[in-house]
Amino acid sequence: MRTIWDADQEKWYLSIIDVIAVLTESVDANAYWRKLKQRLKEEGNETVTKCHGLKMLAQDGKMRMTDVADTEQLFRLIQSIPSPKAEPFKLWLAKIAAERLDEMQDPELTIDRALFEYQQLGYSENWINQRLKSIEVRKELTDEWKKQGLKEGQHFATLTDIITKAWAGKTTKEYKILKGLKKETPMVEVCDFDPIHPEFAIL
Predict the structure, then answer these.
(1) Where are the domains of the chain?
(2) Kindly report the CA angle at 115 between 11 and 71, in degrees rounded to 5?
(3) What single string gives the DSSP state of each residue in 51-73?
(4) Contacts of 141 (CB under 8 A, 6+ apart)
(5) What is the DSSP letter of 89?
(6) What are the phi and psi torsion angles at 66 (to 5°)?
(7) How do residues 68-102 score in pLDDT, each as one tens digit?
(8) How far apart are the first and last CA of the chain?
(9) pLDDT score recorded for residue 183
(10) H/E run at residue 3
(11) Measured between alpha carbons, how far is 49 from 7 in angstroms, rounded to an integer?
């Protein structure tokens, strides 16, 4: 399955045709995608309009434009594919949505889930405690920014860059590049980055 990392967007993109070929086993994934795209447009699905093209290596060895999707767009498309192979993804997405709703009712569940996930990844109890503390400190800092009237987005990004520059002599993006901190796979996020406490980044 063809993938490409967009350094500017800091996102992985996957070839939609390749995903469709795997999930549907269609003899003509291109034709399947054309029909699916047409149906989604008729339904008013905005996912299709947000997908764009990037050059990827084709079977003939040449770089050719192909429709790509980021992880969020891809999961939305998978929900529209009637295929037994797509069903596990749909069930998983439903499970994640149910868990998220539970966490909104009881935020403590989020901490419990984080503890469990870090343990599954093999991190020590000391590291996990430090990581959770760093998240708490970061939240206190961003809460204070909000009190001062700053908005998430460009304001937060600018201040985070200033902090990271003071700590590491590099902007957040430069530090990520230096340490090779990016999502290792488009489907599962296996690395994390804490701009307030970069020393706790998962490598």
Answers:
(1) 3-93, 124-200
(2) 20
(3) -EEEEEE-TTSSEEEEEEE-HHH
(4) 196
(5) H
(6) -145, 150
(7) 988 888 888 888 888 888 888 788 878 878 888 88
(8) 24
(9) 54
(10) strand 3-6
(11) 22
Read off the pLDDT of residues 149-164 as tens digits, 9 standing for 90 and up.
887 777 778 888 788 7
Asked if pLDDT for residue 58 goes beyond 70, the answer is: yes
Structure tokens at 76: 């939305």
What is the chain's Cα-based Rg? Answer: 20
- Which positions ≥6 away from 49 have C-beta within 8 Å? 41
CA 80 centroid distance within chain: 20
* pLDDT recorded at residue 182: 56
**Consecutive H or E run containing 29:** helix 29-42
Q: Is the pLDDT of residue 195 over 50?
A: no
Would you say residue 14 has pLDDT above 50? yes
Q: Taking the model in full, what pTM does it have?
A: 0.56
Six token digits for residue 14: 């996957």
In single-letter form, the type of residue at position 163 comes to: I
What token pair was written down for 200? 């706790």
Q: What is the rounded CA–CA span in Å between residue 196 and residue 182?
A: 17
Report H helices in 148-188.
Answer: 154-168, 172-179
Amino acid at 37: K
